[in-house]
Amino acid sequence: MNNPNLRAVVTGTGGYLPERVLTNDDLSKMVDTSDAWIYPRTGIRSRRIAGADENVSDMAAAASRQAMERAGVRPEEIDLLVLATITPDTPLPAASCLVQDKLGLVNATCFDIVAACSGFIYALDVARQYVLSGAARKVLVAGSEKMSAITDWTDRTTCILFGDGAGAVVVERSEGGTQNGILSTATGTDGSLAPLLYVPAGGSARPTTAETLAAREGFVRMDGHTIFKYAVRNMAGVTAKAVADAGLKPSDVDWFVPHQANLRIIQAVAKTMDVPMERVVTNIETTGNTTAASIPLALHAAVADGRIRDGDNVVFGSFGAGLTWGAAVVRWGK
Ligand code: ACO
To answer: Measured from the CB, is residue 157 less than 6 Å from ligand 1?
Structure first.
């Protein structure tokens, strides 16, 4: 880290969304809800749902393959894969090991990170530390979720929010003197707030039984109202810290790419940060909340359609179950 020219640079992005679209009108046939209730409160009109045989490792592999292609990096060059997910294909092994096999990342060490909606930021932070310490040169960072598998489709207070998908970036070590790359990261956790958003059963404390199945305890439970309050406060706070740590002011932020949990949360955070909505990237209307996949999916869309350009200051901010929160600032370009 003593080399002032050393940078962790984001060199490619990728995204994957399953084909099946579930609209608010479709949901209104499953539970007592309506587009008129969901859209104004969340900004969501539809979300994608993975097929029965389409798993987190498949979606992560698709997004990662695209990110490697766009970065011009071959699978055997990747020396680390960090996959953020709360919905791995199976409890054991880590889904990242399955992604390694699917992509032929023969020289990569692979592990998963469990930090819910902050997972991508946590994983990006790990990638940055590996690259700056010299432990890795080319890292894949992916977020992939099959939230439909842990969503209670009879609970209208949660099932309206979530969707499936994956996003990925390649992070590379650069010693060439570029001013681009990851300028700062900031993260935080408060485990005392764990009961606000959790899955009661299916872990070692309460393994799945006929009883837990009958009580629908294998699905997400959430105190949405309280989460909303903490989300705005923590996401705005950590994002402001990352911006300041990067030596930037709010007016220097070209693009804010927030976790896509709820459009009202995004609007409140942007307002607190003094960033106008024209500079905020949102795709929640058609993706819903894809947890760890949400930021890299929104990022990839904005890079692929040319909104984000070389030299732009791009800011990520998130919060999620844990509670966890995190932010990062990237000056875009190789
Ligand atoms: N359709 C119709 N009515 C509904 C629905 C629905 N889908 N859901 C709840 N209601 C009803 C409630 O029963 C309640 O009725 P009541 O007043 O008769 O009791 C009323 O609508 C209001 O419910 P609230 O929960 O107070 O609604 P709120 O305005 O808070 O909106 C929401 C709910 C959208 C979930 C909001 O609280 C929110 O977005 N919170 C944050 C959620 C979030 O971001 N979670 C993080 C997940 S990220 C992760 O880490 C996985």
So the answer is: yes
- Report whether pLDDT(196) > 70: yes
| Torsion angle of C-alpha atoms 5, 109, 64, 106, degrees rounded to 10 | 110
- 293 HSE (CA, 13 A, CB side): 36
Which two structure tokens, joined as six digits, stand for 275? Answer: 């960033």
Task: Assess whether 5 carries a catalytic annotation.
Answer: no
By alpha-carbon position, which residue is closest to atom 24 of ligand 1? Answer: 225
Residue showing tokens 């997400």: 220
The protein residue with its alpha carbon nearest to ligand 1, atom 11, reads 157
Element (H, E) at 218: none
Q: Give residue-wise pLDDT tens across range 8-27.
A: 999 999 999 999 999 999 99
Tokens of 129: 């530390």
> Considering 259, 262, 283, 300, which one is annotated as catalytic?
259
Q: How many CA atoms lie within 13 A of 122 on its CB side?
A: 25
Structural domains of the chain ordered from first start: 7-174 (3.40.47.10), 181-331 (3.40.47.10)
Annotation says 259 is catalytic: yes
75 lines ligand 1 (CB under 6 A): no
Q: Mapped to the 3 state alphabet, what secondary structure does 287-300 carry?
A: HCECHHHHHHHHHH
Question: From the CB of 323, is ligand 1 less than 6 Å away?
Answer: no
Task: Tell me the pTM.
Answer: 0.96
